[in-house]
Amino acid sequence: GDETISITTETDVDGIYDMVVGFFDKYNELIKEMDSLYNAPSAKGYEPLIDEEKEEMTDDEIDKWEKKVKDALLRRDGTLQGVSDAIKSAFQKSYMIDGKSYSLASFGIKTAGYFASGDNEKSLYHIDGNKDDDTSSGNTDKLRAAIASDPEAVCSFFNQLAQGVYDKLSSKMRGTTLSSAYTVYNDKKMKN
């Protein structure tokens, strides 16, 4: 009945690391899609088809025509750019933790650079040492080391980053006389 039990706890470095990698996979997917839509090729000269025009075309020609028009719907769209810029700016910020300034670069998370990145990939982040990322797999793994040495600082940083994104998007989607809160288009104006 007087047995001594010892319990040892340790940080699940791999679990936290995998969560951060998954987070950036989703971020990169979202930003690449937004940038691709914003930078879509022009559909100049392609107007929506009227019934008479459709009658003179094959189904395949109609599909290609309509795809060209649809693919360019958000080209150079100011609202899309505003939302994208709001998200990106929160990711570029530094955040204070216990009197020390941290940025994504502090954890070896950075973009590949303007000239080293492909089309619509200039704002994508790469994690140094990530074996699944050809761009940065050969670099020193700062993120894993930071998680192992100070997991609270890493968690605090990402909590502040998430709050920064939330704050930027909330500000961007504030209600106005033209739009309701949490909408990114002028729904009130359109209703009138």
Describe what you observe in this structure.
The protein has 192 residues and is mostly helical. Helix content is 49%, strand content 6%. The protein contains seven helices and four strands. The protein has helices spanning 13-38, 51-55, 59-71, 78-92, 142-149, 151-172, 187-191, and strands at 95-97, 100-102, 109-111, 125-127. It has a two-stranded antiparallel sheet. It has a two-stranded antiparallel ribbon with strand order 3-4. Helix 4 (78-92) runs antiparallel to helix 6 (151-172) and helix 5 packs across helix 6 (151-172). The radius of gyration is 23 Å and the shape is elongated. The mean pLDDT is 92.
Briefly characterize the structure.
By secondary structure, the protein is mainly α.
What keyword list fits this structure?
single chain, 192 residues, mainly alpha, two-stranded antiparallel ribbon, two-stranded antiparallel sheet, 7 helices, 4 strands, 49% helix
Strand order of the largest sheet: 1-2
Major pleated sheet: 2 strands, antiparallel
Number of continuous helical runs: 7
Helical percent range? 40-55%
Task: Determine the structural class based on helices, strands and strand pairing.
Answer: mainly alpha
Name the beta content range. 5-15%
SSE order, one letter for each helix or strand: HHHHEEEEHHH
Low-confidence stretches: none
N-to-C terminal Cα separation, in Å?
Answer: 78 Å
Per the principal axes of the C-alpha atoms, what is the gross shape? elongated
Note the quaternary state here. Answer: single chain
Radius of gyration: 23 Å
Give the tally of β-strands: 4
